[in-house]
Specification:
It is built from six helices and ten strands; from the N terminus they run E-E-E-H-E-H-E-E-H-E-E-H-E-H-E-H. The protein is an alpha/beta fold and 243 residues long.
């Protein structure tokens, strides 16, 4: 069983979100400059908070507004690895401001800055949102949401090698609104389709760590909240089983 770290930016999580409540809870609510965009000062504060913990674990990082935290966890990997990202958005936007990390551009920043990163696999992004990165074409691989539905299991030859080490990042906005409720526009995968893909990844590669985001801090419908918590528990159980 891996260590679970819960990063609380918006007080959206409760103990009921997880299979058990024994994880490490990190209060990030008093750090300014973090919502969607993370300035250099806030990045250093977050790095300090997660410094005692390893990338080789399970990390819940609140809403998609804070998905850039995945880059900070991936920085802790000190061996060649690849990123597998499930997300309705590719998060490959060019930076708008110097020194500012964004939830929409952290994957590009990781490609440009991380010396250990070998490849990026983006699964479930809308075809209309695909963003290529000049100079990184051979390291950036897309499976659009349409392809993910048509081919619900990743084949054995999808990854470069069976020994490929993977850092896994899941944004729940890859799922349909019938499955979960996020604060971003969403894709159309079912939870069953996502779980099938995840099982295949764990069978075919060596996953060294994982994170999950996609909460909706403004959600006030009790049934929808219960549905979201059930999805968190399902994902947490799966990750705890393999990691």
């Amino acid at each position: 069983m891996s260590e679970t770290v819960i990063m609380d930016f918006t007080h959206t999580y409760t103990a009921d979100d997880f299979e058990n409540a024994d994880g490490v809870w990190i209060d990030c609510t008093d750090i300014t400059g973090t919502n969607c965009y993370c300035d250099e000062e806030a990045q250093e504060k977050l790095r300090t908070l997660i410094a005692p913990y390893r990338a080789a674990g399970i990390h819940f990082i609140d809403s998609g507004n804070y998905h850039y935290v995945s880059k900070l966890w991936a920085e802790k990997v000190t061996e060649p690895f690849s990123l597998v990202l499930f997300d309705h958005h590719p998060d490959m936007q060019p930076p708008r401001f110097e020194g500012v990390l964004s939830c929409g551009g952290w994957v590009r920043a990781l490609l440009e800055e991380n010396q250990w990163l070998q490849r990026v696999y983006i699964i479930g992004a809308a075809a209309t949102l695909k963003v290529e990165a000049q100079g990184y074409e051979d390291r950036l691989h897309y499976i659009t949401e349409e392809e993910a539905i048509s081919f619900p299991q990743l084949g054995k030859n999808f990854f470069a090698t069976a020994e490929e080490k993977i850092y896994l990042s899941i944004d729940k906005d890859v799922l349909a609104t019938t499955e979960v409720h996020t604060n971003w526009d969403q894709g159309c995968l079912t939870l069953q389709q996502l779980m099938r893909q995840l099982h295949c990844i764990f069978r075919e590669t060596q996953v060294i760590g994982a994170d999950v985001c996609g909460e909706d801090p403004e959600l006030d419908d009790a049934m929808q909240k219960a549905q979201n918590r059930a999805v968190n528990r399902t994902l947490h159980h799966l990750l705890n089983t393999y990691l």
